[in-house]
Structure formats: C-alpha cells, structure tokens
Design brief:
The protein has a 7-stranded antiparallel beta sheet, with helices on one face. Helix 2 crosses helix 3 (about 155-180). Helix content is about 30%, strand content about 25%. The radius of gyration is 17 Å and the shape is globular. The chain is of the alpha+beta class. The chain has 3 helices and 7 strands; from the N terminus they run βαββββββαα. A hairpin with a 5-residue loop joins strand 3 (about 50-55) and strand 4 (about 60-70).
Length: about 190
C-alpha cells in the first residue's frame, strides 16, 4: 500500500518550521486529533526513543507515538498509533529543507500494509486527518495558508503573532464546545 505523501512550503527557516512542529505542537494541534478530546499539551520528547503524548488537565498522559529519529532542524521520524494499539503503529517521516526564503516540508506517512485488512480504512482516515491538521500547522508557522511563501520571514513575528494566538484560542474553544457536547456551534468573537 502506498504511503501518504504531503508536501508544502512555509515562509520561515527550517529551524522555526521544525520547532513549531516538534516543540510547540500544542499551539496548533487540534483537539480532534487526540485521545482525550481536550489536551492541555501535546509533547514530543526531544530525543530518539522519546514519547509523543498528550497531557490533560488532571495530569493524565496518553501516548500516541514514539520518536524514532530526532535530527533538528532537518528531520523527524516517529511511530504513530493515535487511538490504536501500539503494535499497530505506522511511521511518519518529516523533512524540513531550506527552499529559497522558506522551508520545504515533506511528510511521508507509511506502514499501512502492516495493518492488514484495516490498513486501507486507517489510511483513508489519516488522509482526512492530514487535511485537517496541516492548515493549522501552516497558520501557526505564520503563513497565508496557500502552501506558498506567504510573506517574508523577517516580519513574521510582528505580523503573525496574533494569528498564532487566534489559532490556539480557536483550538481551546473547539475543545470546550466538545466537552459541552456542542459540536456544530460557530466561533463567536472572544467567547466559546
């Protein structure tokens, strides 16, 4: 079964692109991509063999993967088993390569054939998952969301901080609405 491959370009150096993915994950990771539905933090332990987990308000932790290669700022490889048995983990490899004034981010999600009959279904579910995940990452990095070089790096801190804060606020509101059982409510200004 073919791996899922996603490619995008972000308007920042590889160091920032890697850091947002692996060290500031909680800024952009959606509650819908978690075990609890309301994580307070999503953590990649920064080393080969490190855990990938979410922590909820009571301090409970839920593992969803294991770091296989930690090579900042160019490469991250991890096993991934969100809501699956650890034995059914797939593998995600992400490379961050300087590309002009930005960074080319290439994601290869493989290992579906190991899952036997359920591999095709999980691959399809993850296709939809990546489609929902990547726009949030792009926004957190400070892009225009089009996958191109939307803006210059030197001004991203001033021009984009409000956008990153908004992404985090919307994620918190989504989690709060889910917790209350309100799944289809719209975002209303400053409230949830």
């Amino acid at each position: 079964m073919e791996p899922l491959v996603r490619e995008l370009t972000v308007a920042c150096p590889p160091e920032h692109a890697f850091a947002v993915w692996a060290e500031r994950t909680s800024l952009w990771w959606p509650a819908s991509h978690s075990v609890s539905g309301a994580p307070e933090a999503v953590v990649f332990e920064p080393r080969a063999g490190g855990r990938i987990y979410e922590r909820v308000s009571g301090g409970e932790e839920h593992d969803s993967g294991r770091v296989l290669a930690w090579e900042p700022p160019h490469r991250l490889v991890y096993s991934w088993h969100l809501r699956q048995d650890r034995a059914d983990a797939t593998e995600v490899e992400i490379t961050f390569t300087a590309a002009g004034a930005g960074t080319a981010v290439a994601i290869v999600h493989r290992g579906w054939e190991r899952l036997g009959a359920k591999g095709a279904q999980l691959r399809e579910r993850n296709t939809r998952g990546w489609a929902g995940l990547l726009p949030r990452y792009v926004a957190a990095v400070g892009l225009d969301g089009a996958g191109g070089a939307g803006g210059e790096w030197r001004g991203w801190r001033v021009a984009r901080v409000a956008r990153v804060a908004r992404v985090a606020r919307v994620a918190r509101c989504e989690a709060a609405r889910r917790a209350r059982g309100v799944l289809n409510g719209g975002h209303r200004g400053g409230g949830c």
